[in-house]
Each structure stands twice: as structure tokens, then as C-alpha cells.
């Protein structure tokens, strides 16, 4: 199959908007607004990981974290965006038992928010928890039911409560940066290919991030990034506009590995 050309995909009639986003936009880098003001930068192939985020502050503004490309997180794994109690303070609670104050104490008794950073190709196993503000390097593996309380090194295998490094993985080519058509065309022998550290692989060019927003019952497409500015879709090249419009509508659509290259 020629993965660099258009491929017709016909999802089931009852496919959700989220399914269409994952199918047609999930292999692009995105900026995902978890709340109206706070966002996470997410690499290609990692968009499902937004479901692993917990305790995103409703009133937070700006970046609360980042997730690299092609990360895998078990549905039961949790990335705590906020919520660690300030146990060195006399009052270390946020008064969730006083709903009459309507969130007036939401910031009280908690440690200041520190953005988390998950690298590329990271695996976070079942029931694992990553505490707020932690950094996990590229290719790291977090074992089942582990609790990550300190930063984890790239290519490290961690397990336990608290998580400790058990060993290091062997080095390999940064396959998560392969051009998507190159990756797909070589899927049958991707393991061997990724093991060729110094081979002249085909890497993806830098492209603008698409910008999505969680609206609780739906996903809204906001546009794309130019620097740190969010530009509306009508300012994108025609090929990009056509691709996004048809991708988000019901019915057969054309999948493109790189709509920016057209």
C-alpha cells in the first residue's frame, strides 16, 4: 500500500466524533485544551492519553503538561496534573467538603502546579500513577501499579511504590520521529529498522500543531498553531482545510499521512 497517498477510510455510521478525530488527526501533533484555559501539547499517536489525565484545575490558564509521540497508557493509569497536598502547611486540604463555597478553596492546601512532561514512546502500565510535575524520559517504561514520585530517566524501566529504576533498555533509533508514511510502509520489519541506530531513516518534517478543545460532550477543532498563536482553519493552506473538513464529517474520508505536504 502507498501510505504517502490518500487512503479512503469508511468508518461505521455510528462512529463518534472522537473516533474520527483519532483516525484522521491522531497521527498529527496537537494542542489539546482540557479546559477553556489550560492545555497539553500532545505528540502524534498519543492523543488517547488525554483520557489518563486526572485533576486538571478548572481555572488554570496555560500549559499544564506535555506528552510526546506514540505513548501507550493503560486505561487505568493516571497522570495527576494537580492534587498533591501541601503537607508541610498547617492546612493541607482544599475543603471539598464545603460545596457551599463553590470552589473558593480549590487552590488551598495544595502544592503549586508544576507542568508534567512525558517523553516519546513511553509506556505506562495498568494502575500506575504519575504524580504531578514529574518528568519521564523518552522510551521509559513504568510498571503496573507503580507510583512515580520522582523523575524517570530515558530508556529506564521502573516499578514499585515508589517507582525505582530496575534496568535500562538498549538504545535504538528515535522511531517515534519517523515520517508516518515511512513508519507505516515498514511496519512488517519496524523492530529491526528501529534497531539500526545510525541508518539513514526518513524522519518527519516539522508541521504546525492542530488545536482541539474538550467541550465535555464533544471535541471542537479550533485551528492550528503558528508559533504560539492559534490560527483559524481558514488561514491554513487549501489542502489542509479540505482534509480537516472532510475528516470531521460523517461518511467516507481520505486519510493522509501529511496533509501539510500537499
3D structure, described in words:
This protein has an 8-stranded mixed sheet, covered by helices on one side. Strands 6-9-12-14-15 form a 5-stranded mixed sheet, with no helix packed on it. It has a 4-stranded parallel sheet with strand order 4-7-10-13, with no helix packed on it. With 262 residues, the chain is of the alpha/beta class. A hairpin with a 4-residue loop joins strand 16 and strand 17. Helices cover 11% and strands 25% of the residues. The chain contains 4 helices and 19 strands. The longest helix has 10 residues.
The strand order across the widest sheet is 11-8-5-3-2-16-17-18
* Low-pLDDT sequence parts: none
Count up the helices: 4
Give the fraction of residues assigned to helices.
Answer: 10-25%
Oligomeric form? single chain
List the helices and strands and how they pair.
Elements lengths: L6 E3 L7 H9 L4 E4 L4 E5 L10 E2 L7 E6 L4 E2 L4 E3 L35 E3 L4 E2 L4 E2 L4 E2 L4 E2 L4 E2 L7 E4 L4 E5 L11 H6 L4 H5 L15 E5 L4 E8 L2 E3 L6 H10 L5 E3 L7
Parallel strand pairs: 2-16, 3-5, 4-7, 5-8, 6-9, 7-10, 8-11, 9-12, 10-13, 12-14
Antiparallel strand pairs: 1-19, 2-3, 14-15, 16-17, 17-18
List keywords for this structure.
alpha/beta, eight-stranded mixed beta sheet, globular
Give the gist of this structure.
By secondary structure, the chain is an alpha/beta fold. The chain has helices at 17-25, 180-185, 190-194, 238-247, and strands at residues 7-9, 30-33, 38-42, 53-54, 62-67, 72-73, 78-80, 116-118, 123-124, 129-130, 135-136, 141-142, 147-148, 156-159, 164-168, 210-214, 219-226, 229-231, 253-255.
